[in-house]
Every structure is written in C-alpha cells, then in structure tokens.
Amino acid sequence: MTEFWLISAPGEKTCQQTWDKMMVATTRTNNLSTNHKFNIPDLKVGTLDVLVGLSDELAKLDSFVESVVKKVAQYMADVLEDSRDKVQENLLANGGTVMVTTQFDLVTYITRFQWDMAKYPIKQSLKNISEIVSKQVTQIDNDLKARASAYNNLKGNLQNLERKNAGSLLTRSLADIVKKEDFVLDSEYLITLLVVVPKTGYADWQKTYETLAEMVVPRSTNLLFEDNDSGLFSVTLFRKAIDDFRHKARENKFTVRDFQYNEEEMKADKEEMTRLSTDKKKQFVSDMTGKKGQGQFPSCSSCCVEFTCSPCVCVAFLRGPLVRWLKVNFSEAFIAWIHIKALRVFVESVLRYGLPVNFQAMLLQPNKKTMKKLREVLNDLYKHLDSSAAAIIDSAMDIPGLNLSQQEYYPYVYYKIDCNLLDFKV
Question: What's the chain's average pLDDT?
C-alpha cells in the first residue's frame, strides 16, 4: 500500500507559516510528496521527567501495537485463504464523530486523522492515555491468540476428517462407500472383508480369491467402488481363515482393509464432519439468503471461502463471527496505533522544541522515485534545528551504505507509518 512520513517542525510566527514553507519546499516546485496537516489536540504536557520517561515507553508501545495490527491483518488473510484479493478492501478504520461513524480505508483515515476524544480523553494525562491504549491493544492481542487457537483447532480437525474421506482406497475412510447389505452381519462363523485390488489385478483377483485360503465362500466377491487406480471388493469367508487369507492376499498384492461395519460409529463420524464443516462456515457467513434492500453482492464463486451455494447471493460474506471480530479489532488496533504516533509526535516535539507548545505536525506521502531527494530537501529546510544531526545526515548521504543507526534521527521530529501490513501482495 503506502508509506507516510509523520513529521513536525516548530511554529514560526504562526504554525501556518511552518506549513507553508514545507509545502513550498516539497510540492510547489518539485512535487516530492503529497502533504496533509496532521491534527493533534492540546494535550496535557506534564513534567519534563515524565515526558522523557514516556518517550521511551511510547517507542516500545508503538512497536507492540504495530505488531498486533499486522497480526490481525495477517490472520484475516489466513482465514480468508483463497479470497485474499478481498482482504485489503476489508482492512478499514472506523472514523467520524461520536454520533456518526464512517468506515475509511487506511490512507483516508490517516490523511484525515481526527483525535478520538471519546476513546482517549485529552483531559487525561499523557501517561494515562498511553495506558488506555496499552490495555486495549493487549486485550485484542490476547483475544486474537485465543480465537486463533480455537479456529486453528477446528480447521485442523476438519482437515483430518477431510483427509480420511479423500485419497486412495488404501487409506481413505470407507464409511461413505459401503452399505449394510454389502456385509454378512451378526454371524458367529462368517465375516465379510474388504480388499483393495489394483485395476491391473482385477482378473487375477477373480481367478484366485476363492483359493487364497480355505473356507472362502464361493462367488462371494463384489466390486463395491473404484477410483482411478484400484477397486474395493468384498469377500466373505469363515472367521478362522482371516489370518491365512490376509497373508496370501498380501503375497498377491491385494490389500485387506481393517474395517468393521458399525452403523453407530459411521453415523457419528458423518455427524462430526457435518458439525465441523458447519462451524467453520459460520466463521464466514451467518446468512446465505438474499435480503431485500441490501443491494447486489458477488456470487460464491468470486468471494466465498471453502463452500458453495447454488444459487447464492453472499449477503453476509464477512458477517461470520471470526471475520467480523477481525474486522472490528483490526480497526480498533489500527486507530490506537495512529493515536500512539500522534502521542509520540507531541511528546518528542515538546522535548525538542520546548515550551510553550508550538509546533506543526505534518503528514507526508513521499513519491517513491524521489524519496532521497525529499529527505535532502527536508534536511536543508530544518537543519538549523539540530546542526549536529544535520551534519551526520549529510555524511550519510555522501557515503552510500552508511546507516545512521537502527533508530532514524533527523533535525525534525520524524516517524514512519508503513501501511504495508501483509506478507503478500494483493
């Protein structure tokens, strides 16, 4: 998606002059970036000691909240699986007023940022606001772990059952293939075995099965099912001949499956499969029928995940409880993250530029091809704020490959906001 540079510079006679100078330097002559004012309210300053300590705490909190934002986004992608092209459009942030809430894409939310007075009251101290964010996002992180664990267990159990009902006749479940009438049941002496025979061995099976052991019932074999490679045959014999029959069958490359017809167990397996499949689908869709007044929605083939309906209008593609939770809490975590950025800009600006509070926060969206030039222009514009930092930056620009440090430092307050939250491109 997009990278932003959130910067601040001290106010000149007015903050508007600071803004105008930056605009002239970066856009009016060379179009290096798209710029927006970043509105930070009048927060409580507190003491210098508190600000210094809070600066370090906010740096750690920033990293933590960013990691949670990315985890929620990535898990949304993992849950939606084959519909990953739908992920980005559902990573939204709720904004607006207390009375009217609007969903914004992330770029729009950042560029139109307004402090959420209801969630983060500015009458609270900076420390208290940071603690509110920390508790909120920690809860999201803990809930995500619990929900992810439950969903992954459900998905794993379903995949195990699906594997049992797929694959070759040598390994797959036979419960959905055989019927009660295929077996001799409740006999003290006779038993029906199921044998997997390669297609190339059908003729040999028919010639030899009666002689593989004593006491095989003549003409008792039937072909019950076949796939691309093999067929499943039934054969009836006396119970005491089972071991001998298995041994001889193996010598002839016929495989006797371990299977006993148990109607109750087979019914329970089918019910478990249905339950797990239903539970998984509920994570995505709670209503598969069209509802009047809700407009047109894409068909299952374009948006649904791992199930089909015919005919179908996906009224509630993203209404399922897990995806709904991910959407809501992604928004909460992302909003918290941007508020942490705002807090960091405020605290760092006060520490650098002093009191009374007088700075202009600005959001720059650099043009990819001119990032280096933009950095040079900003350095020239603000190098008077910290000559030592400017000198180091000049040296770094002259020596390719020289990094300033792990933590970027410039004469002006600077924080990067990277909206590339996913591990894949959409």
Answer: 84
From CA 353, how far away is CA 333, in angstroms rounded?
30
Supply the pLDDT for residue 289. 33
Phi, psi dihedrals of residue 172, rounded to the nearest 5°: -70, 160
With H, G, I as helix, E, B as strand and everything else as coil, classify residue 318: coil
Place of tokens 């003409």: 219
The answer to pTM > 0.70 is yes
**pLDDT computed for residue 1 by the predictor:** 53
Q: How is residue 278 written in tokens?
A: 């239903």
Strand pairing of 190-198 and 413-418? unpaired
CATH homologous superfamily, domain 3-153+320-418: subunit c (vma5p) of the yeast v-atpase, domain 2 (1.20.1460.10)
- Taking the C-alpha atoms of residue 150 and residue 172, their distance in angstroms, rounded to an integer, is 26
Q: DSSP labels for 407-419?
A: S---SSEEEEEE-
**pLDDT category, 164, cuts 50, 70, 90?**
confident
What are the domain boundaries of the chain?
3-153+320-418, 180-260, 285-315
Provide the token pair at 170: 């040598």
Helices (H), 252-398: 263-282, 300-303, 321-353, 371-382, 387-398
Q: Which CATH number fits domain 180-260: 3.20.20.140, 3.40.50.2000, 3.40.50.1820, 3.30.70.100?
A: 3.30.70.100
As given in the structure block, the two tokens for residue 113 are 């940022």
| C-beta of residue 125 within 8 angstroms of C-beta of residue 45 | no
**Residue 2 near residue 367, CB atoms below 8 Å:** no
DSSP secondary-structure letter at 118? T
**Segment 198-257, tens digit of pLDDT:** 999 999 999 999 999 999 999 999 999 999 999 999 999 999 999 999 999 999 999 999
d(Cα 268, Cα 372) in Å, to the nearest integer?
65
Hey, which residues does 104 pair with through a beta bridge? 93
The two structure tokens encoding residue 76: 């949304």
310 neighbors 329 (Cβ within 8 angstroms)? no
The yes-or-no answer to whether 3-153+320-418 and 180-260 have a common fold is no
Residue 35: CB atoms within 10 Å: 19
Instruction: Please state at what angle helix 126-164 crosses helix 48-80, rounded to 10 degrees.
Output: 20
pLDDT digits (tens, 9 = 90+) for 392-414: 655 555 545 444 444 578 999 99
